[in-house]
């Protein structure tokens, strides 16, 4: 089945620790995105990538980092600089990074602080 | 400014009632795209529909229908004869000159038997 796989489903972070959220897609999509969802809030864009080896900051990039070394993979690292990391993180992809393209989402990773 | 407003935070209906979810958007672009997504309790967002700014035809898909009105900058979503499985959070989103989507804060719909 084609789709987007996010892992792990649940993740716990200790103070001062960096953690990495995995996102893999086998849809052959060029563009990938990371969103953060807080209770009662919409989705806010963290980073996006339109092609391999290129990515752009979104609205709330501070405290996060990404890489795009392969077309199918777009991991997100939540660094210790992110002081309020507890949230639901969603990865998405689209055929191209264009405004008319529907985005397809993974099941999400729920990150909590220990 | 690009913005999507979903004024209804939570809606509760009894099964078989019709329900309309409101979406109002703001954009300066003449070409833009509107989307609706469903987020069931499992968390994954499911794409429901896309509408471009040049096409104001309403659309019906089974029990779902969408009413796009440029004059009022609205793109409302109606579920007819609601069912318990329709319980979810529904998001309206705007795609414009940028590459990502602007999402509204979502409307949580609870359908009770």
Main β sheet profile of chain A: 7 strands, mixed
Number of contiguous helices of chain B: 0
Describe the oligomeric state of these chains in a short phrase.
Answer: heterodimer
Report the strand count of chain B.
12
Beginning-to-end CA distance, first to last residue of chain B: 41 Å
Output the structural class of chain B: mainly beta
Question: What's the quick description here?
Answer:
The complex is a heterodimer of chains A (114) and B (113). Chain A has 114 residues and is an all-beta fold.
Task: Note down, in words, how this protein is organized.
The complex is a heterodimer of chains A (114) and B (113). Chain A has 114 residues and is mostly beta strands. Chain A has strands spanning 4-7, 10-13, 19-25, 31-37, 43-51, 54-57, 64-66, 76-78, 87-94, 104-105, 109-113. In chain A, the strands form two sheets. In chain A, strands 2, 4, 5, 6, 9, 10 and 11 form a seven-stranded mixed β-sheet that branches. Chain A has a four-stranded antiparallel β-sheet with strand order 1-3-8-7, with no helix packed on it. In chain A, a hairpin with a 2-residue loop joins strand 5 and strand 6. Chain A is globular and about 35 Å long. Chain B is an all-beta fold and 113 residues long. Chain B contains no helices and twelve strands. Chain B has strands spanning 3-5, 10-14, 19-21, 24-26, 33-39, 46-52, 59-61, 64-69, 74-79, 88-95, 101-103, 107-112. In chain B, strands 2, 5, 6, 10, 11 and 12 form a six-stranded mixed β-sheet that branches. Chain B has a four-stranded antiparallel β-sheet with strand order 3-9-8-7, with no helix packed on it. Chain B is globular, with a radius of gyration of 14 Å. Classes of the chains: A mainly beta (114), B mainly beta (113). Chain A binds chain B through residues 31, 33, 35, 40-45, 48, 50, 56, 58, 88, 90, 92, 97-108, 110, and chain B through 4, 9, 31-33, 35, 37, 42-47, 50, 52, 91, 95-101, 103-106.
